[in-house]
């Protein structure tokens, strides 16, 4: 037990180290980066107007801020979370006023901030700016989860903890012959489903790119619901959760998606807890209480505006009544929320978004998607709610984002998924092998380098190329699945962008844009193209060069989990020393090289990247497939 205690104490220390590092990084970016860059990163929202004031529990002043929609598809607040610590800035006369607060509520085009201190007299009349300083809520939940695991008061949790620390052997139950809901599952997917259902406490599904990992999870969920199980489906990102939600809705299950609607796809918002709460018959009484409270708040504000004096007792009574009405409405809301969640077949949430509303009783099954992208402390947040866990992920793709290098080296970089891969017997783990995305040549290098050649391209995608798309001309590029454009000897050298603290390569960026436009001219729709790069400075430069929002440019990290018919990768690095920086983490390139379905174009300097064994192997693979081209073929002399 000492080993277990030491392990979780160490994780608690690492969480504190990571929290401090994130705070420092957010503060540094706030001071260093221009507003436009912070807004592009989702860390800042400008042009906000204070539209209402309210009072929350404990008498905290609440300001409601909004920004009118101008037809944007994405909410300006999509990267913000309830509980985030923020700084609100606005002009008060000739001076800039800054107030710290915590995000109290987040909607699509409206946000509520609970101020840490009483606001100055008078509501801001001009535009305000909101800056994220960090999220405390997720760290608090991680600490609370780790402490609960340590105590082990709940028997199912204590049992899972011991198994996950290598103490004891997980159990297997006898399964009847399964009748699969999805008749198109391949043999490896069926094996993964059977092993997951037969496992008494835990199973792992290793899903390389394009192998239908989510399809397997949906089958496991449907089979479990059929047996009367209550299921929690969770992932570290909203995109991954929404992906499961969309497929579960297609299956006709009763589902509830927790989390703020602002961070959920428009087409899925009717499934959110917020939407179902609004439609509930008990909502009328809650609305009546809120209207009575809002009337009192307005009366108090009018008296204040007209300098009408009230006795201390009158003020105290009015404030007490406002707070009592608020508490009564929220208690009713809380009760309705628990009822809606209890009646659902499946509840979906992000790991960090799991709240006390789910705590009524443990779930029979927890499905953890993208488990290899969550740190171990974050993974324990949903696990505290479950009796059994099925992990799904791929540790050979991008790891979790970690701010503290010290914490990463001391153990935070090792995910629970990776730990379990080492200690669970093989009958509790399945590798999915048939992929349904890429031409076999695009798949081949990744399969060889990362998966010991185990991957197989399904016949439906094995030989498809861009030339096979409707109305696309046959050209040098469209008829090939893989093209490497070598910039060695062109003088396209990288440079350091001091402002963004990142690297860029203008010559490479212009070449990438030229190739994208050439492909578009050959008939490939822009929606089928993605231009990706490891560096944020290069992504910004590419957007500037294109000057056309229809061409999708993104970082590799930001594009994980997605795919396009054609992907162009700009590697950026080109220097005499052969330095490749964080390209050394080859998992990032595994993601980059597996985003394309029909055509993958990689642009890079062979003289620089070939000094690393991984990229030298890639160049050998390129030569084997006669895919090596010189950039001079596209440079006008």
Question: How is this structure best summarized?
Answer:
This protein is of the alpha/beta class and 637 residues long. It has 20 helices and 23 strands. Helix 11 links the parallel strand 11 and strand 12.
Which features does this protein show?
23 strands; 20% strand; 637 residues; globular; alpha/beta; single chain; seven-stranded parallel beta sheet; six-stranded antiparallel barrel; 20 helices
What does this structure look like?
By secondary structure, the protein is an alpha/beta fold. It is built from 20 helices and 23 strands. A 7-stranded parallel β-sheet has the order 9-10-8-11-12-7-13, sandwiched between helices. Strands 1-2-5-4-3-6 form a 6-stranded antiparallel β-barrel. The chain is globular, with a radius of gyration of 27 Å.
Number of contiguous helices = 20
Q: What composes the largest sheet? A: 7 strands, parallel
E-strand count: 23
The backbone outline, from C-alpha atoms, is: globular
- Report the C-alpha radius of gyration, rounded: 27 Å
First-last Cα distance: 71 Å
Instruction: Supply the helix-strand structural class.
Output: alpha/beta
What is the residue-mean pLDDT, rounded to a whole number?
Answer: 90
Oligomer: single chain
Main sheet strand line-up = 9-10-8-11-12-7-13
How much of the sequence is in beta strands? 15-25%
The stretches of 5 or more residues where confidence is low (pLDDT under 50) are none
Helix content: 25-40%
């Amino acid at each position: 037990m000492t080993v277990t205690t030491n392990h979780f104490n160490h994780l608690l220390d690492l969480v504190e180290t990571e929290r401090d590092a994130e705070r420092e990084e957010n503060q540094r970016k706030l001071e260093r980066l221009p507003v436009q860059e912070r807004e592009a990163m989702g860390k800042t929202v400008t042009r906000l107007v204070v539209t209402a004031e309210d009072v929350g529990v404990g008498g905290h002043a609440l300001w409601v801020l909004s920004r009118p929609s101008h037809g944007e598809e994405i909410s300006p607040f999509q990267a913000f979370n309830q509980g985030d610590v923020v700084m609100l800035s606005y002009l008060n006369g000739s001076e800039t006023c800054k107030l710290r607060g915590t995000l109290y509520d987040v909607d699509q085009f409206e946000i509520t901030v609970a101020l840490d201190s009483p606001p100055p007299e008078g509501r801001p009349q001009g535009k305000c700016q909101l800056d994220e300083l960090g999220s405390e809520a997720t760290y608090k939940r991680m600490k609370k989860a780790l402490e609960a695991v340590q105590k082990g008061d709940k028997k199912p949790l204590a049992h899972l903890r011991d198994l996950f620390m290598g103490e004891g052997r997980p159990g297997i139950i006898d399964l009847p012959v399964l009748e699969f809901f999805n008749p198109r599952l391949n043999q490896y997917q069926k094996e993964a489903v059977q092993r997951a259902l037969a496992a008494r406490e835990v199973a792992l599904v290793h899903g390389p790119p394009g192998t239908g990992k989510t399809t397997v999870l949906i089958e496991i969920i449907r089979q479990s619901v059929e047996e009367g199980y209550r299921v929690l489906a969770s992932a570290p990102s909203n995109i991954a959760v929404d992906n499961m939600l969309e497929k579960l809705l297609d299956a006709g299950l009763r589902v509830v998606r927790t989390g703020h609607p602002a961070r959920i796809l428009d087409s899925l918002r009717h499934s959110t807890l917020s939407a179902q709460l609004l439609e509930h018959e008990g909502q009328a009484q809650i609305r009546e209480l809120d209207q009575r409270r809002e009337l009192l708040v307005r009366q108090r504000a009018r008296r204040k505006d007209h300098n009408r004096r009230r006795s201390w007792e009158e003020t105290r009574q009015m404030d007490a009544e406002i707070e009592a009405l608020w508490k009564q409405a929220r208690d009713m809301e809380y009760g309705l929320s628990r009822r809606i969640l209890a009646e659902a077949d499946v509840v979906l949430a992000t790991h960090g978004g799991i709240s006390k509303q789910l705590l009524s009783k443990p779930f029979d099954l927890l499905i953890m998607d993208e488990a290899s992208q969550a740190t171990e402390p974050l993974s324990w947040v949903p696990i505290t709610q479950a009796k059994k866990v099925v992990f799904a992920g791929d540790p050979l793709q991008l790891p979790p984002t970690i701010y503290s290098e010290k914490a990463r080296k001391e153990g935070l970089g090792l995910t629970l998924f990776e730990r379990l891969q080492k200690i669970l017997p093989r009958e509790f783990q399945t590798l999915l092998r048939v992929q349904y995305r890429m031409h076999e040549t695009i798949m081949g290098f990744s399969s060889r380098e990362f998966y010991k050649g185990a991957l197989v391209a399904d016949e439906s995608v094995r030989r498809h190329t861009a030339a096979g798309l409707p109305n696309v001309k046959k050209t040098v590029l469209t008829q090939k699945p893989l093209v490497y454009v070598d910039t060695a000897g062109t003088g396209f050298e990288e440079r350091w962008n001091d402002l963004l603290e990142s690297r860029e390569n203008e010559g490479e960026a212009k070449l990438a844009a030229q190739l994208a436009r050439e492909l578009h001219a050959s008939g490939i729709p822009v929606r089928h193209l993605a231009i990706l790069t490891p560096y944020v400075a290069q992504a910004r430069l590419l957007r500037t060069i294109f000057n056309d929002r229809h061409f999708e440019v993104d970082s590799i990290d930001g594009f994980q989990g997605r795919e396009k018919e054609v992907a162009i990768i700009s590697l950026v690095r080109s220097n005499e020393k052969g330095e490749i920086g964080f390209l050394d983490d080859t998992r990032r390139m595994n993601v980059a090289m597996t985003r394309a379905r029909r055509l993958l174009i990689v642009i890079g300097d062979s003289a620089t990247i070939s000094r690393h064994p991984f990229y030298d192997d890639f160049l050998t693979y390129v030569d084997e497939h006669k895919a090596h081209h010189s950039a001079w073929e596209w440079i006008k002399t």
